Amino acid sequence: MTNNSSPYILETQSLFKSFKGFTAVNDVSLKVYEGSIHALIGPNGAGKTTCFNLLTKFLAPTSGKILYKGEDITSLSPTQISRKGVIRSFQISAVFPHLSVLDNVRIALQKQLGSEFHFWKAPSTLNVLNDRAIELLDLVGLNGFYDDMAVNLPYGRKRVLEIATTLAMDPKLMLLDEPTQGMGHEDVDRVTHLIAEVAKGRTVLMVEHNMKVVSTIANTITVLQRGSVLAEGSYQEVSKNPLVMEAYMGQASATI
Questions:
Q1: Is the pLDDT of residue 122 over 70?
Q2: 186: which residues sit within 8 A by CB, 6+ positions away?
Q3: How many CA atoms lie within 13 A of 196 on its CB side?
Q4: Host domain of residue 178
Q5: Four-CA torsion 235, 236, 242, 248, nearest 10 degrees
Q6: What is the pLDDT of residues 60-91, one digit of tens each?
């Protein structure tokens, strides 16, 4: 049953995931407000990526529920979840390296034509998507790169292209897994600004290690440790939490 009056676009209730006796996600209950940027942080091994895999059904939970707009989606497949508008990017670049920047976005837009599996059709059938593809590339700052092969892009711009392809699938809830991982300072700033821009009109849930990024754009932060929720709140709240300081730095006097 759907509860459209809920202010949460995503909610998990007592989510557990165990692997042969090891509990990777332990009683995690998240509430992500619609229209917010929500960051999931924690030390290495805290269970952040496992949580993402559960939310997008790349893994099935051992127990617990996942609600999207009040609807129980726990038993749905990854394809069914993506069709509802829950779209995920990954830690590593997931673009087609030997296709052009424009073609990468056009392929992501194909579902609008209902032809995403019609590989035998001529490439010219995708020309109707050019305007929208260019609009998305301009939005993420890739104007002038339309004809470049994705493999030739610098790493930071490959990650930006991945955000463009994610946007092409019209996400209502955008899950970003380490969007600034491995980037230099300039690229981090560019992607941070981009996430803030694309979050207008949609919800973003992201796993991120860079505390500058988190403190700049996240409305709510959930801190995981050993698969459990350690703290939640604004950056100002969680950064002053002694338990969070100890989890990150091993001492209560540390800062994050």
A1: no
A2: 156
A3: 13
A4: 1-85+171-256
A5: 30
A6: 999 999 999 999 999 999 889 988 999 988 64
Distance CA 29, CA 183 (A): 31
Same domain as 107, residue 1: no
Where among 170, 197, 217 does a domain terminate?
170
C-alpha distances (whole Å) from 92 to each of 3, 40, 98, 160, 195 are: 35, 18, 16, 12, 17
Q: Residue 229 is which amino acid?
A: V
Q: Count the domains in the chain.
A: 2
**Amino acid sitting at position 171:** P
Rg (CA), the chain: 19
In a domain, 90, yes or no: no
pTM of the shown model: 0.86
pLDDT surpasses 90 at 92: no
Name the least confident of 4-8, 70-74, 207-211: 4-8
pLDDT of residue 251: 42
* pLDDT tier for residue 100 given thresholds of 50, 70 and 90: very high
250 Cβ neighbours under 8 A, 6+ residues apart: none
CA distance 219 to 109: 30
91: nearest Cα among 140, 57, 52, 54: 52
Quick check: 171 and 82 in contact, CB under 8 A?
no
CA dist 108 → 2, 56, 190 (Å): 28, 18, 22
Residue owning tokens 């050993």: 226
Residue 14, helix vs strand vs coil: strand
